[in-house]
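RECORD CONTENTS
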Amino acid sequence: MTADKTLPLGFQTAGVTCGIKESGKPDLALFVSDVPVRAAGVFTQNQVVGAPVIVSRSRLPSETVRAVVINSGNSNACTGERGITDARQMTSLLAERIGAGEEDVLVCSTGVIGRFLPMEKIEAGIREASQQLDGTSQHLHRAAQAMMTTDTVEKVVTRRFDVGGTKGTVTGVCKGAAMIAPNMATMLAVIMTDVSLSPGRVGELLQVAVNRSFNNISVEGHTSTSDTVLLLANGMSGVECHSEPELEQFQSILNDVCMELSRKIIRDAEGAKHFVTVNVQGLPSEADARKIAQAVCNSPLVKTAITGNDPNWGRIISAAGYAGVPFQEQDLSLVLNGVVIYEAGRPAAYDEATLSNSMKSGVVTIDLQFRLGKAHVTYWTCDLTAEYIHLNADYTT
């Protein structure tokens, strides 16, 4: 195996085209560790889940996982017992190729719902991909491309850090561009690290990172059936993160990787022209702040106003008002791209043309400032364009 500074030590990846997608684009990816990893996962909270979610969720947390196999173009969701059988077969096929147990391989699928997997093509793809496994950034990017559905770019983030003079690496790969909502989204992510983590802390670290990243993004508020984020830690760098200061340092790095991956999803959202940050602060609880952030992020009227570079602040204020969080109008002020446009329950004077012009940059920041507490949260979303509607109107036909 060759290696570079992109992948953590002891990990190999591959991405190939096996014919699931009619487009002929890459559609099967492998992520393999040379040694068993300590693994945890966070999955969709939808009641309707894909067969791969059922299989992978049943195998985690674990201290013996060796690999993840992912296909795109077909989500293997709503496919009954055959779907479960096919998902398990995918793990068995890869396990045989790398000398691991079936239970030590995880599986993810993304794409159209309600279609059976072409298992002959997938079997051939796993065979081909397993022969191409390598530790180079080139192969990592091929794997990232093979996860994509309507994504326009692959999404990879790497961070290196020092613990006691020894270097550790965290690398995350994800896909996602639509069907994105808090409490996960139509997205898959594999996060690999060569540091050693205590078995009982892997899941905790991942959940904290997800709650600050993948659970804080929204394109249109539709929670998918396939959402999966996996953390794999193989310890091969020799870096140990077991003490509280070490764990805090690793948590910060993991949060950073996940947040950057999340922002990449929003920047690549289907048809999007604006990247929108929504800051909500000054509420009694984080739960309250999340409710308001989600209401604003998921409002079609807010999104379409942003599409038109229209600082129509009444849409933002009214979305906050129906979020189910008690407040009085005078408790709220609104700042858009640094301009106060609503202050303590009253409209503020501002230059509408200048503010609209600032929105044309494609970057919009919405600050909702309450005076009811200290809780705050940041979400990321995008606008809603005609292109998004066309893409999703024609998705399966």
